Amino acid sequence: SLLPALALARPRVAATGSTAPTVAPAGALSPVAVAQPEPWARFNRFGFSLMFGVGSAGLDRLHDLGDAMLATGGVPADSVPKSGLQINAELAFRYYFPYYVMAQVGYATVYNKVSAPSKVMSNIGMIDGTLYNDNLVMEVPILLGGYYPFIDRLYVYAAAGPSVFFFPRSFWDNEPGGVPDFKADAGVGFTFLTGADFLVTEFFAVGLELRYRHLKTGALREDDSGVAAHAVFGGEPFDLDFSGVSGGVILRFYVI
User: Fold this and answer.
1) CA 106 – CA 44 distance, rounded (Å)
2) Phi and psi torsions of 111, nearest 5°
3) 92, 48 in Cβ contact below 8 A?
4) pLDDT along the chain (256 residues), means of 10
5) CA separation for the pair 184, 164 (Å, rounded)
């Protein structure tokens, strides 16, 4: 009869009164929870980086100093380049604060080198030579800026601040003869940088960086005697100017 058939179709009730679980119809889609990965460019991270960069620097006053040295040998003016290739390397420590704020302190070396044809006095008279100039300074940039996760593993940043520099040196060699080396006092410059990092893993990233540096020393003086360079070679005081733009490659490692 119809009543027994309906009784068989009713769900069975357990002793507790709960019904047995029902089965979804064939072909129906059940929602699946997908776990979202934690962003790698997250807050409260600390890391250190190694940077190697190249750029250019204006060498106007060194050009004038070199010309003053070479003038004693009859070398035409403007023989010394007015700009040169500049190399810089840096070890930096960075912390990422909430609200996309970051702070960075670095320890960097900045170096440039130029050369020019010269004349050198010898026991047979004036002979051809080469004037070499190597310039070096150490700096500690103290920067504050911001960062932003651009996409999942790529984020951009920018920062600026003072740069304390020390040990500015200018080494000269007029082969096959010699000329004095020079030094200047420590001081404070300015650094601005911007770049992008790509996180290869959660704790390692590679990046590219563009940096502007304003770093100009005071007057040069002889490394040994302390006599001002302009007192020896004439003209206005000569200084070292490491200001310029450079591009760098970054290897960044995260501790937390």
Assistant:
1) 19
2) -145, 140
3) yes
4) 49 50 56 52 86 86 76 62 84 94 96 77 65 90 94 91 95 73 94 96 94 92 87 82 93 93
5) 14
End-to-end CA distance of the chain: give it in Å, rounded.
74
Burial class (CB in 10 A: 0-12, 13-18, 19+), 238: buried
Alpha helix segments (H runs only) across 35-151: 60-71
Compute the distance between CA of residue 132 and CA of residue 113 in angstroms, rounded to an integer.
Answer: 8
User: Can you read off the two tokens belonging to residue 111?
Assistant: 């170096």
- 3-state helix, strand, coil split of the chain in percent (to 5) is 10, 60, 30
DSSP state of 61: H
248: nearest Cα among 210, 221, 194: 210
* Whole-prediction pTM: 0.76
Dihedral-angle region of residue 226 (phi above 0 means left; psi in -120 to 50 means alpha; beta otherwise): left
Residues found in the chain:
256
Please check whether residue 100 is in contact with residue 146, taking contact to mean a CB–CB distance below 8 angstroms: yes
